[in-house]
Design goal:
167 residues, 6 helices, two-stranded antiparallel ribbon, four-stranded antiparallel beta sheet, SH3 type barrels, alpha+beta, flat
Length: 167
């Protein structure tokens, strides 16, 4: 009799644990991500063409409120806005537990305009690290100098307006 009660409780606990794992952070638990890329900004909308609301320092922890594609709506230092997944390389978009993806594989994905824009900005840290290892003779000082250049957001917005560029 005691063994049966113990077994039922163990099964209930295991079932509860499995349900909690399957539900994950997308069901009411706040997800916290750490910004691991320098020079990141908080945007009013999920779009790089908008005027940034505020810079977000590398190492900052943000509370994820919502995810829309490759963008996260976050709260950081009392401000709410959008950040692109490039700020969190360790957190891949869609990294939440996905049983369908585990069973049937990930669906094919087309490149979005944001991804194409990011590709034009240079190597990801992972690609750059791999390239440095394969080509130790290469000098990256000039690349580092170019990457350190910053554009004033107001001047960028003026350029977009004057050039009648569409986001």
């Amino acid at each position: 009799m005691r063994r049966s009660v113990f077994r039922q409780r163990a099964i209930r606990l295991l079932t509860l644990g499995l349900v909690l794992c399957l539900l994950g952070p997308g069901t009411g638990w706040a997800e916290v991500l750490k910004v691991s890329q320098a020079n990141q900004s908080l945007y009013p909308d999920p779009d790089f063409a908008g005027t940034p609301l505020a810079p977000v320092a590398e190492g900052s922890e943000v509370n994820v409120l919502q995810q829309a594609g490759d963008w996260y709506k976050v709260e950081v230092d009392g401000k709410t806005g959008w950040m692109h997944r490039q700020a969190f390389p360790a957190a891949q978009a869609g990294s939440k537990f996905d049983i369908k993806g585990l069973l049937f594989g990930a669906p094919a994905k087309e490149a979005k305009s944001d991804e194409v824009a990011l590709a034009g900005k240079g190597f990801t840290p992972e690609v750059e690290s791999s390239y440095r290892q394969k080509h130790p003779e290469m000098q990256f000082a000039q690349v580092d100098r170019v990457e350190s250049n910053r554009v004033d957001p107001a001047r960028l917005q003026a350029f977009i307006r004057e050039g009648e560029l569409k986001p």
